[in-house]
Amino acid sequence: MAATSPSVPQLFTELQRLGKEGNFSKAQKIANKILQENPKDADAFHCKVVCLVQQSCFREALDVVNSGSKKGIKELPFEKAYCLYRLNKTSEALEVLKDIPDQGQREKELTAQVYYRLGEYEKCRSIYKDLIKNSEDDYGDERETNLSAVIAASNQWGKTKLFSESGLREDTYELCYNAACLSLANNDYQTARSKLTQAEALCRKSLEEDP
């Protein structure tokens, strides 16, 4: 007697399990099976795109996203913008992001990265300041590091130099390194050297504490 094919709910259960395990290659195959049963299933379609992105298949993911509108599936503007960004189509990514109303945190994070790559440091800084002020998660250190990198980059390569933010910490090696880059850009070599030495010490300490 032939084995009964799993139902769509069973496939979704398997898809969820594989996603949690990080097995995105197999999860993509399950998403494809669901789409064979129901080509317009928006959840399976979204999962397929996410699986492709997680496997760094950005060109294929973008093609899948673009095919959605032809099938009457709701567009995925964030995923589209992210794929464009990873494919170095930065200006196109920005245009997609600008069309997203009421941007959430992930859209703002990506927009900041896009502005940084385009050298729009003032706009990038503004977004990071807003995120640092209004976010309540575990990524505060990362955002402060990015903010200090923006300020350093503006002083090295930007048309307009941004002043350092008051109260910006230097207690991680990334923050301290960015502070050194800012001093270097301002031709303050003695301070830059001191901060680089401090950054090296903080990095060594971090590696020693890392289990």
Q: Tags for this entry?
A:
TPR repeat; 211 residues
Extract low-pLDDT stretches.
none
Distance between the first and last residues' Cα:
53 Å
Give the strand content: under 5%
- The structural class is mainly alpha
Which sheet architecture does the biggest sheet show?
none
String of helices and strands: HHHHHHHHHHH
Annotation, overall tally of beta strands: 0
Task: Note the total helix count.
Answer: 11
Bin the helical content. Answer: over 70%
Mean pLDDT: 87
What is the radius of gyration? 22 Å
Morphology call: elongated
Subcellular location: Cytoplasm; Endoplasmic reticulum
GO biological process, one term: SRP-dependent cotranslational protein targeting to membrane
Main location: cytoplasm
Pfam family, one: SRP_TPR_like
Give a written overview of the molecule.
It is a single chain. With 211 residues, the protein is mostly helical. The chain is 71% helix and 0% strand. It is built from 11 helices and no strands. α1 runs antiparallel to α2, α2 packs antiparallel against α3 and α7 packs antiparallel against α8. The longest helix has 21 residues. It is elongated. The model has no long low-confidence stretch (mean pLDDT 87). Its main location: cytoplasm. This is Signal recognition particle subunit SRP72. Belongs to the SRP72 family. Keywords: Cytoplasm, Endoplasmic reticulum, Repeat, Ribonucleoprotein, Signal recognition particle, TPR repeat. It is found in: Cytoplasm; Endoplasmic reticulum.
